[in-house]
Amino acid sequence: MLAGARSFARHVVLAVPVLLYAGIPFAVAVAEAAAADGEASITPSEALSRLKSGNDRFSHDAVLGQAVDSARRAVLAQGQSPFAMVLSCADSRVPPEVVFNVGLGDLFVVRAAGEVTDRSILASLEYGAEHLHTPLLVVLGHESCGAVKAASEAAGAGKHVASHGPNLDYLLHAIEPAVARAAKTPEEARLAAAIKANVDLVIDDMLRSSAALRTLVHDHKLQMVGAYYELASGKVLFSDTPHEVTDAQLKRARIKLAARTASASKH
Ligand SMILES: [Zn+2]
To answer: Quick one: residue 134, left, alpha or beta (phi over 0 = left, psi -120 to 50 = alpha)?
Structure first.
């Protein structure tokens, strides 16, 4: 199956999505710019609209100033209530607060090269979803991602690839399945396809590895959405359909998880 420039290929068990990426209609939503109290109670789709509006402003050079002054800091000193979580690459060109034109306290952000997750990243996102009640998690890949590029080059070298050391090897190994999924895409579109496939697989992996996130998604308290950032245009292309978890899939996942836990406790 080919992962085209504007779609993510899908294969997995827990998520049932059709991920078509589309441009965002231009609409400046001035009212959404100011943060308000109680935002954690907004719906996932309202949170997504707010991100889309912010990115629209950013990509059209129409950013609004965000509250970062002492008054805002005094409010935030009492507690945080971010309206969305973003897991993005560590790349300096993709700072979520900037590309979504939001302010202090608006986003709960976790960053790692290639959006590769580990247990500490999952624990951070579980905290944001469970304890801060953040209703939306965007996994944000980006054009020309160096981590995915490096994983592609390592895969191309096959068994002859030299070790990059245990840490970078771990990172590149985690991205390998996305590179494999995009392998049959025409060369000029292959890297973008691998980057999108990686976003997709990161979401699948989170749903598999985190019972907390899986349950929240199943109960419609959390929406997980893939996205792809274009470096020059500044546009974020979102997946049209969020990842979902059906009852049957949730049940199967719980059985697998219980079996794995039982097996692990024997060792
Ligand atoms: Zn990157």
So the answer is: beta
From ligand 1's centre to the CA of 63, what distance in Å? 24
Q: What is the torsional sign of CA 44, 8, 13, 16?
A: positive
Q: Give 229-263 pLDDT, tens digit per residue.
A: 999 999 999 986 666 776 766 676 666 556 656 66
CA distances from 182 to 21, 157, 187, 199 (A): 16, 16, 9, 12
What's the pTM value of the predicted model, to 2 decimals? Answer: 0.79
Write down all domains in the chain, each with its CATH number in brackets.
Answer: 7-266 (3.40.1050.10)
User: Please, which residues have CB within 8 angstroms of residue 229's CB and are 6 or more apart in sequence?
Assistant: 94, 99, 140, 141, 142, 143, 235, 236, 237
Question: Which residue shows structure tokens 């359909």?
Answer: 241
Higher-confidence residue of 112 and 266: namely: 112
Distance 76 CA to ligand 1 centre (A): 30
Ligand 1 center–CA 75 separation, angstroms: 33
